[in-house]
Amino acid sequence: MPNETMKTAILEKVRNAAHALGINNKPTYVVMAIAAVKGICRPAFTMMDKKEDPKTKKYTAIREGLTEIIAIPVYWALGELSAKVATKALPKELQKKGAKNAMFLGVCTAALLVIPGLCSAVIKPIMGLFYHDNSNKKSENKLDITSNSPKVQISNSLSDNLTLIKRPSIQTFTTRSDYGMKVGGV
């Protein structure tokens, strides 16, 4: 029965690993794992979209991957930094729980403030190295806002100084038959 003892040994190792993760689990580990999975899966799923333009798919996949590459170290750094600050500020009996709570707050701060700010500052210049677009250059063309704007017509005054206003009519209404998530914000 060597096969049965091998199964038992593997099961025991899995049980020990799960126990160790449960005892030593930190909020930072959880969000870093989620960011790693997102950094792999989202670009992969983006590239599998058959309806989208290949250039748009590639751009979006690289951008999503870069976002998670930035996110992982930021989650780790802010989580650990918050835990260290809490450990120094709290009394000994509250340090363990306080450190995990502070780590959670650090991770939340990273997700809400730091990562979006870093991504806004870093990703556009990096993507500019791969894709040379002219979106940064100011356009000399002026926007023509009068061409398709609806007309509001005011009719003659009625009695008691009331004025009738005709509502603008919708001249054209188009529907899109292909609903769903579009890549690239389009």
List the helices and strands and how they pair.
Blueprint: H1 2-23, H2 27-47, H3 54-89, H4 95-130, E1 153-157, E2 163-166
Antiparallel strand pairs: 1-2
Helix pairs in contact: 2-3, 3-4
Would you mind describing this structure in some detail?
- With 186 residues, this protein is mainly α.
- It has a domain at 2-130.
- The chain is 62% helix and 5% strand.
- The protein has four helices and two strands; from the N terminus they run ααααββ.
- It has helices spanning 2-23, 27-47, 54-89, 95-130, and strands at 153-157, 163-166.
- The protein has a two-stranded antiparallel sheet.
- Strand 1 and strand 2 (163-166) form a beta hairpin.
- The longest helix has 36 residues, at 54-89.
- The radius of gyration is 28 Å and the shape is extended.
- The chain starts with a helix and ends in a 20-residue tail after the last strand.
- 15% of the residues are buried.
